[in-house]
């Protein structure tokens, strides 16, 4: 890299890293009065609180959020792969309309949908339940998965499946041993999209979960209201780590395409 | 509106491949069920509730009272104006920076995986976390104000300009711009990498200036991706709740915050009004999608290649 490349590199490092500076400093501060630039005392009180005093609650939030995001991502793939295949591979009458209907929820915010469904979810016994929140997350995760997989199947050549069939492979075997390995990078991206969307969702979880389903964002909001800055900073960092891990873990499979298109 | 398949591998075009209606139903059925029942169903149920529908009393119980209350509220215009200003400004800034960043990356960073990895990090960070960080950075007792006092630029917290919960929504804009630049940049990078350098070289041979090459070659090529990602960002920021809730002022409220305030009010009578505001947000976003689509088509017909 030449001089200007290095300048670009450090600008990006600084801009990306900037928001984490106050979070790290606050989470390790014991006393930090205004206007000191540096905490007067460093300590592990906030982290101790997160992992011991409120440990079960934070850990519970972490587990709930993870389970919720994993379930949502898995169902999004199950529903999204066939739909993406239909849109990417085949021409059929009304395709534009079907595509529009399926993709629309990416752009339209979930706010009104969650409010509209809430009353009926109460009647059906789905409000304040895990299943209910999964359902509301699916309304925007499934369209995103379809969008990604549509692109994947536009580049996919199904003739190789016919060859496998001629060689005597069963339909299930073709899906498992031929199709899935070929579309794996796209599937990983779609799974990651859905995971991240569900993971960072606040309002729709609050409306449908009614504050009973304590995911990390719900806990974090409550902490912000209580005004304990070091603890809120520490929990913010806990909130970031699993998504980082998901990114690093999938980096290999995603390859050079990266997370293009994730929101 | 949205065109997938912008990945860098050469596409095998599905020219006219067809299949049986049964297979299509099987493939598309579950997805359509999710979107039509949950998403569209949710909107329809929302409309009924905004209309004050009482189950058991039939459609005769519908009234325009709640929607009317919202539309005639003197706060609506100010609330809409502020929401539109925040979304439009953050989208514009993010688009502008992303175009410059994407071009700089193609020219300078080449194959540096580190840079691309770094740029992917913001995509995984929830808006809520960045909102909290911006609060710790920009508030009157935040890190920037402390820095200002330390180097002697300001006397104390009171002489620091209001950057969160402020009338201009600086804090909200900061969060959105930080979050959305990588999103738009990656969308543009996919197109720029596919474009290669041949066209630009041809332009240079024909003595086109850098400015001309940008406006007549690069910009027309990235325009669809830029437009689509800009629209996604605009729609998202228009309907997002967490960031303005934490960093916005209590008056006037941004539309999503106002909607939720009403919806969660102890007075159950405000609930239909909350849903009506939520639906209004939905309508505004759908209208802006249609409008930008029409504008784009109109521009194409007139021969403007943007």
From TrEMBL, chain A:
Signal peptide start and end residues: none
Xref: CDD domains: TM_PBP2
Pfam families hit by this protein: BPD_transp_1 (PF00528)
Subcellular locations according to the entry: Cell inner membrane; Cell membrane
Membrane topology classification: Multi-pass membrane protein
Broad class of the protein's primary localization: membrane
Domain ABC transmembrane type-1 intervals: 62-250
GO cellular component, one term: plasma membrane
Annotated TM spans: 7-26, 46-79, 100-122, 134-153, 174-196, 202-224, 231-251
Cell inner membrane recorded as keyword: yes
Family: Belongs to the binding-protein-dependent transport system permease family.
Protein name, per record: Putative spermidine/putrescine transport system permease protein
Species, as recorded: Desulfofustis glycolicus DSM 9705
Lineage start: Bacteria, Pseudomonadati, Thermodesulfobacteriota, Desulfobulbia, Desulfobulbales
From TrEMBL, chain B:
Domain of life of the source: Bacteria
PROSITE patterns: ABC_TM1 (PS50928)
Key words, A-Z: Cell inner membrane, Cell membrane, Membrane, Transmembrane, Transmembrane helix, Transport
Xref: Pfam families: BPD_transp_1
Alphabetical GO biological process terms: transmembrane transport
Topology within the bilayer: Multi-pass membrane protein
GO cellular component, one term: plasma membrane
Segments traversing the membrane: 21-48, 82-103, 115-138, 168-192, 213-241, 275-299
Subcellular compartments: Cell inner membrane; Cell membrane
Sequence ranges assigned to domain ABC transmembrane type-1 in this UniProt record: 80-292
Similarity-based family: Belongs to the binding-protein-dependent transport system permease family.
Name of the molecule in the record: Putative spermidine/putrescine transport system permease protein
Species for this entry: Desulfofustis glycolicus DSM 9705
């Amino acid at each position: 890299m030449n001089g200007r490349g290095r300048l670009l590199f450090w600008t990006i490092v600084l801009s990306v890293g900037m928001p984490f500076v106050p979070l790290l400093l606050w989470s390790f501060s014991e006393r930090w009065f205004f206007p000191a630039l540096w905490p007067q005392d460093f300590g592990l009180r906030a982290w101790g609180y997160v992992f011991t005093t409120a440990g079960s609650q934070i850990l519970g939030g972490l587990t709930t959020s993870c389970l919720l995001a994993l379930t949502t991502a898995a169902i999004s793939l199950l529903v999204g792969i066939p739909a993406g295949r239909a849109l990417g591979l085949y021409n059929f009458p009304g395709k534009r309309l079907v595509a529009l209907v399926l993709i629309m929820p990416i752009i339209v915010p979930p706010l009104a949908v969650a409010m509209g469904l809430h009353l009926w979810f109460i009647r059906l016994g789905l409000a304040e339940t895990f299943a209910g929140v999964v359902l509301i997350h699916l309304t925007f995760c499934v369209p995103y998965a379809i969008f990604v997989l549509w692109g994947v199947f536009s580049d996919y050549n199904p003739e190789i499946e016919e060859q496998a069939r001629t060689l005597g492979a069963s339909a299930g075997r073709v899906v498992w041993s031929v199709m899935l390995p070929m579309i794996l990078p796209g599937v990983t991206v779609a799974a990651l999209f859905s995971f991240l969307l569900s993971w960072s969702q606040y309002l729709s979880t609050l409306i449908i979960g009614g504050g009973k389903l304590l995911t990390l964002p719900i806990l974090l909001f409550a902490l912000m209201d209580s005004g304990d800055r070091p603890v809120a900073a520490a929990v913010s960092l806990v909130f970031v780590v699993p998504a980082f891990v998901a990114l690093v873990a999938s980096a290999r499979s995603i390859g050079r395409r990266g997370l293009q298109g994730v929101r | 509106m949205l065109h997938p398949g912008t990945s860098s591998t050469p596409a095998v075009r599905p020219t006219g491949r067809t299949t049986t209606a049964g297979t299509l139903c099987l493939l598309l059925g579950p997805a359509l069920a999710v979107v039509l029942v949950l998403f569209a169903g949710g909107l329809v149920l929302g409309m009924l509730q905004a209309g004050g529908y009482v189950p058991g009393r039939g459609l005769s119980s519908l009234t325009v009272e709640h929607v009317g209350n919202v539309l005639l509220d003197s706060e609506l215009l100010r609330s809409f104006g502020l929401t539109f200003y925040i979304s439009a400004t953050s989208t514009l800034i993010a688009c502008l920076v992303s175009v410059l960043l994407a071009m700089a990356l193609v020219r300078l960073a080449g194959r540096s995986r580190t840079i691309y990895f770094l740029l992917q990090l913001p995509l995984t960070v929830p808006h809520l976390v960045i909102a909290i960080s911006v609060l710790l950075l920009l508030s009157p007792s935040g890190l920037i104000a402390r820095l200002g006092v330390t180097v002697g630029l300001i006397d104390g917290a009171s002489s620091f300009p209001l950057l969160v919960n402020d009338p201009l929504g600086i804090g909200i804009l900061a969060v959105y711009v930080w979050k959305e630049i990588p999103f738009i940049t990656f969308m543009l990078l996919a197109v720029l990498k596919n474009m290669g350098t041949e066209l630009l070289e041809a332009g240079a041979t024909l003595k086109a200036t850098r400015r001309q090459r940008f406006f007549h070659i690069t910009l027309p090529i990235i325009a669809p991706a830029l437009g689509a990602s800009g629209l996604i960002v605009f729609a998202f920021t228009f309907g997002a709740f967490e960031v303005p809730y934490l960093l916005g002022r209590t008056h006037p409220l941004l539309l999503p915050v106002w909607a939720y305030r009403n919806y969660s009010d102890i007075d159950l009578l405000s609930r239909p009004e909350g849903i009506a505001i939520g639906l209004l947000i939905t309508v505004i976003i759908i209208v802006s999608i249609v409008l930008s689509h029409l504008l784009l088509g109109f521009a194409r017909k007139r021969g403007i290649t943007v």
